[in-house]
Amino acid sequence: MGKLNQTILVLSFSLSITYAGCGSCNVDNKKAEKPMGDFITEINENGAIKGLVLASCGMCNFGMKNINCSLAIQINEKAYDVKGTKIDDHGDSHAKDGFCNAVRVANVSGKIKKSDFMADTFVLQKD
């Protein structure tokens, strides 16, 4: 019986570590403010997009079910994981104005493929 309890304890601990996220976020269920602007509202039939989008951490601010902090864009309340650039390529994601604490505006070009945005360009806009 002791070995069974020990095994269950080890499995529980392992699963909690695996699905805990990055651990650095101070997510407090308070959503970051979304900037106003002239954003992309439609995706072409071929998936190509070019223009302004909201960019942030998908897990922290867009409600994605990712297990780690990762860069995402949002078009019409639908979030897409970004491929071709990473969350920390644009500064510390956990800084006050970082992606885990703020929703930023990015000028992008690339294609939407399923639930991912394949970035050709990704340029953060100044505040």
Task: Give an account of the 3D structure.
The longest helix has 17 residues, at 2-18. A hairpin with a 2-residue loop joins strand 4 and strand 5. It is built from two helices and five strands, in the order αβαββββ. The protein has a single domain, classed as Beta Barrel (OB fold (Dihydrolipoamide Acetyltransferase, E2P)), CATH 2.40.50. Strands 1-2-3-5-4 form a five-stranded mixed β-barrel. The chain has 127 residues and is α+β, with helices and mostly antiparallel strands.
Helix/strand layout:
Layout: H1 2-18, E1 48-57, H2 58-61, E2 71-75, E3 78-83, E4 104-113, E5 116-124
Parallel strand pairs: 3-5
Antiparallel strand pairs: 1-2, 1-4, 2-3, 4-5
Keywords:
127 residues, alpha+beta, OB fold (Dihydrolipoamide Acetyltransferase, E2P), elongated
Q: Which structural class do you get from the secondary structure elements? A: alpha+beta
Strand order, main sheet: write it out: 1-2-3-5-4
Percentage of β-strand residues: 25-35%
Radius of gyration, rounded?
Answer: 17 Å
CATH level-3 fold name: OB fold (Dihydrolipoamide Acetyltransferase, E2P)
Summarize it:
With 127 residues, this protein is of the alpha+beta class. 17% of the residues lie in helices and 31% in strands.
